[in-house]
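Reproducibility note. Readers wishing to regenerate the assembly model reported in the main text can use the exact inputs given here. Chain order matters: entities are listed in the order in which they were concatenated for prediction.
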Amino acid sequence: MLIKSIKLKNFRQYYGEQKIEFSTSKEKPVTVILGQNTGGKTTFVRAFAWCLYGGEADEIGFLKGSHVLNDEEYLFLERNTEKTGKRREAEVELEFLSYLDVDGDEEITQTDEPISYLIKRTRVYTTEFRKVVSRESCKLIKTSKYGNPITFDSEAAIKSIIETILPKDLSKYFFYWGEKIEDIGKAELNKAIQTFAGLDVYTSGIKHLNKVLKFYNKDSGDSAAGDEIARINTQIEAKNQELAGIKDQIRLVENELFIASERVDKANEDYYKIENDIKLKEEMERATKKEEAIKESLKTKNENFIRDFDNSILPKILVIEKAKEALALMESDEATKNGWSNVSVQTINEIIEKGTCICGRKISDHPEIVQILNDQKKYALPNALGGVVKTFKNTLEPLDEDRNSYLKRLQRDFDLITESQDMLQEVRREKQNIVASEVTPEEIETRKAKKISAEGQKSALEKQKGAWEMRKRQTEQVISNLEKEREQQQKFYLRQSKLLRKINVTEYLIKSLEIEKSNQEQELRKKLIDYTQKYFDQIYVGEAEIVIGKNFDLTVVTKINSARRINDTSPGLEVVKNFAFVAALIQIAKEQIEKEVSEKTGRPLVSEPYPLVLDAPFSQADTQHIRNLGKLLAKIQDQAIFAVMEKDWEVAKEELSPYVGIYYRIHKEKEYKARFMKESLS
Amino acid sequence: MAKAKEIVLSGEDKKAAEELFNSILLQEQINKLSGFHIPEDTMVDKFKRMIDDKVK
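Running the prediction on these inputs yields the following structure tokens for the assembly.
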């Protein structure tokens, strides 16, 4: 980065638009800006940082709450806050050259011909609602020898490009303003150098990882999952042993059950072997019972028959048969056929005489009825037997019915006796057919008892087996539950184990970052001591040694002899010491940039130059040291822009003049109006 | 990457740690570029997730 020009527009005391150019030649790399105290030298140096990195006024060293706009312009706005939309702007435009071609998307190439970058930063101040408000914007135009200009409007892209060419942290060591040189010894150098050397990245990483570690340690708790698994394993082992015992018992019972089953089969076989005999015996018993029953029945039936065959009735029955024969003979007579029974001739004559029938009907008028009555006299008593026969018949008929009924009963009794006799014959034949069993009833009982006993034993064993199997299932369930619990614990254990690994990895990372940081810090410290001592030796008149403390605090020790050293604290020496330190920092910063670019591009950065912009570099130094400083600064930098007080320049120019390419003088017209005037080299 | 010798890691975890080392430094560089404006909790969460993903 070589700065070609800077254009200021209403930037603090630089009223209106002013542009100055800087020497970029290798032979005369120095541009000198001469100015008085409070003339605007510091503002001029701060303008570089603001243009490149932006931000509020206090970020580049102005008072907090102040502004970068020219005060006269700002007062104009303040006077017009009633009117919304009044506008003024402060602007800084910086043109620089770089051999780095950067696009803002991390693509970097090194070029043989320098690329021109023009960065313009503007802060617009406007009146709004009785206030002055401001907004910042930025534009960057990149122009290479072979391509069309490329414009970048995005703040992020511009930031990325500028950070690549000159990181903001490192820029502090290229753009010094105000009292910074004097303050170097007092500043919190440790933090600044950490940032400068990139060690803050390690510090931040270590801090964040320690917080991660706290998370993991909190999660890990004080669990003893391993012990828990061991306890469950012991329980499972005990239960498995119990289960093995149960299984042995089941096998034992099964064996016994097998034997019992055999015994039952044998008992059944023995028992069913005599089953036929038992059946025969049962059949004989049944036939005998049946025979007895039939005999009993037959006896009763015989008795009934004998009772029914009554001697007193029998003659009657025989008479009836003869009477029936007599009746048949009598009925063959006409008188028996036509005569009325129980009607006498006398009765008939009386009816005729009366002329009225028994039923009340007049018969005198009916000769045919009188004729019938007269005819009937022939059959009626005492004139005929007809009526007698009729009466006899009527008497005989019920007796005949009794006889028939009696005979039927006798016939039935006889039939029953015959039937029973047949049944008796049949059952006797059956009994003859049943072969008598040789098995004794005792034997049958014995075998039956054996069968029942064997079945009882088998049933008891089956119950026993059932009980063992129930216990087996319960034990298996307990084991299954324990195994599930163990699985949970194992998962937990694995998680714990994983957590322990994470803790180890995190601790490893923290340790590695600490070691890496320490190594880099030591390397940086060594380099700083070497370079500072080297530059100090070039500036300082005399023999002294620079010592860099733990917090990068600088001490100069003067050798009296090999045994004694005295710290030197004179103001002049302080300036020389600080310059030597700044020069060393610049050297290291350049190496740092070269290293970073080399890492990104894959080839070493050898050609990128860097400027050194200093405000009042020689104040506080004595003449000899100013001369030495001037000589050194001109040599170590590719480009130097010095804002110098005239009195100091009078001393420094003896050594620096041959290297100066351009002179400017800041002319302070009013308190808030400064202007650059170009001066001739003579 | 410097070796933290006293912490013994398995080959797999060591490889993960080496990869994580570079990733963490890169994240911190990005954080630095942002002016260390990324909230601390975000960074811690990010690193924890990175470690969780790598150590399996």
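We highlight two features of this model. The CA atoms of residues 6 and 14 of chain B lie 13 Å apart. The mean pLDDT of chain B is 84.
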